[in-house]
## 1
Amino acid sequence: MKAGNKVILALIGAGGRGSQVILSLKQCTENVEVKYVCEVDEQRGGSVIRELGKLQGYEPKRIADMRKVFDDKDVDAAVITTPEHWHAPASIMACEAGKDVYVEKNVCLTLDEGRRMIEAAAGNKRVVQCGTQNRSGDYAFAARDYIASGELGNIVTVKTYCMLPGTREWILKPDSPTPEGLNWDMWLGPAEMVPYNVSRHKAWSDWWAYSGGAAMSGDASHVIDLARMALGDPQLPQAVYCAGGRVIFNDKRDIPDNQTVVFDMGQYTISLESSQYGDYMQKTPHNVRFSDKFPEWRNNSTRIEIYGTKGFMFLGRHGGGWQVFGENMKLLAEKTGYFPDEKHHRNFIESIRKRKTPNASIEQGVLSASMINLANLSYRSGKKLIRIDPKSGSITDNDEAAALDKRSYRNYKL
């Protein structure tokens, strides 16, 4: 650690979420500087570079190749907010270069990627914070403690939701020349080399090659992770089944807009409704996230329902808080929430300085991501059941799903 406990960061991927994270890390912590903004598209990153320049008195250096970050011994940690297909390779490369890592969800796209991320973090003694910020929320700790106390009784079933508002029709554009200022080869990175296509570049979350889906991998990952935390962080399910398809528009997207999943956890089940239709559903609004209010649970699109033998809990992510009800909807307990982004970012910097396990460890991040990935594998293998070996965490009786989980990595070895 440098003099005065200074932490030097590099941002890799300067999109909207990446810009939010790096600015928060700079603003809500002390003695933190950002040396690099790494972005393969020259049209992105200018705004966050200027803002960081105002905050720290000098602008971070713009680069395109993340390997320059990993080679610079001044950099303590990489903040990885790229498209999802880069999350695991970039995190592993960073750990092997001796960098700590903040990586956005979904942290990996395959079971094998997850295992290798855990190995890279442990083998190189790196701090890795996953971007599942509910794990830094006081309401999440309180929900976990309430359930662990036995006040809810024995858990019978858990229902999770990520029913996002409706989507628009998607038209596959033709291949075209790569826009000036974009390094398409680096953008694709470990994925297959294909001609430039704006439908891939700007709608990457609609392709299995780069994502597990905007609703599932990009959003339901938060819901599953919070549910797992509240339940005491169970291991992988014994079996997974996923059905669904394209409901609103029968276009050429890889990713379905409606998926229903059942996870067999042994003593109870977890179900997940993940979708992109219905403007009558809404996420927890900002006037609830930053207040002592509760969402309107009935049309809250990202709620969790935990049913025990003594009562049931509504649990909301990103500051939604929780309420427990019993017979005749008698209120038994409650706790409001507050959106914990800044707490999560402060926890990351504190974990770097104290060399401690962060709130959203890579082990738990991988387990939550693996549940999403297993659901997608069930769907992609023809909506077939997947059974999992509880010791190895591997797929045992769905050869097609196991084959789909094996990704090839162009120019990269994992």
## 2
Amino acid sequence: MQRLVDEKQVAGLVTLIARHGKIASLQTHGPLKTDSIFRIYSMTKPITGVAMMMLYEEGKWQLNDPVSRYIPAFARLKVYSGKNPDGTPKLEDPPRPMTMRELMTHSGGLGYVLNPASPVDEMIIDANLLNANAPPPTMIDGLSQVPLLAPPGTRWSYSIAVDVQGYLVEKLSGQPLADFFRQRIFAPLGMHDTAFYVPQEKLPRLAPVYKGAGPTLTVDENRPDPTLIPLGPSGGGGLYSTALDYARFCEMRLRGGQFNGTRLLAPRTVEMMRTNHVNPEPLKTMPPGTGWGLDFQVITNAAAAGTPVPNGTYSWWGIAGTWFWIDPASDLFFVGMVQHQNLDTSRAIHALSRSLVYQAIIE
């Protein structure tokens, strides 16, 4: 990790490895500290998944329920099937409604903001549906006017689904998403530096996001103001956190839903979340050896996936490079924090970290 900083591939990193309930390694490289705060982007998604499953345990919803039971406007969703001769979208009725299971596994047909070449994604981008300055119902109203990119249950596609789940947490719990997270997850786990914004007094601890490499490595100044409290917090990518805070979340997962005597989920619920729930047809559209649990990627065949982590390991990462994995077979989890806006660099670092960790495990 220090070599990456010396070579100016990244400006700094924080890495944390825990095994058998103890931190085995906590290292900082570059101008970072163990309490540095990072924008974790899509590492927000597993936390939203835990919130959803807490409500599942309360009987608020079931996996095979249609999403339209809780979002009536989704009953009118169409499927994009190309363009008409006049250039307008050709829309068709889906063969059946999207289920909550499909919403939790990115197999419901929803688009996202990551591929502007996709006509459906372009509609989401043009409508500015992921707008932190708009309340969550505005996103849902806009999304109900955008077609699905595929019929539900036919294709896996990373999507806006977890932002929809953030809205559902609010609707099913009767609480704003930020309040639910703070009261039901962050406070019980002691995640005191995790939130949808960075208070002014913590701003000196915020790690800047970098771009480029080598002589072009520089701070990306085109970032949103981290001190603004969002009106529409993103359940799919809005949180800031630290390595130690996120470690508490991972330890809770590794210990079957409890941390230091505080229980958030039942062991069986945790097991459900780290089990592949993608059905055979959309599973064919996923990377080899991988599946998707309830808001986590799951390794189902490590050899096919080309990874040293054991089968059953589950994980995800954020667009600015942060990453984690939880390995029940080895009783281990890893949290990596970096702020670098380059996917090729991030993926290489993630793969390197897995090689370095597993060559060190000899018993």
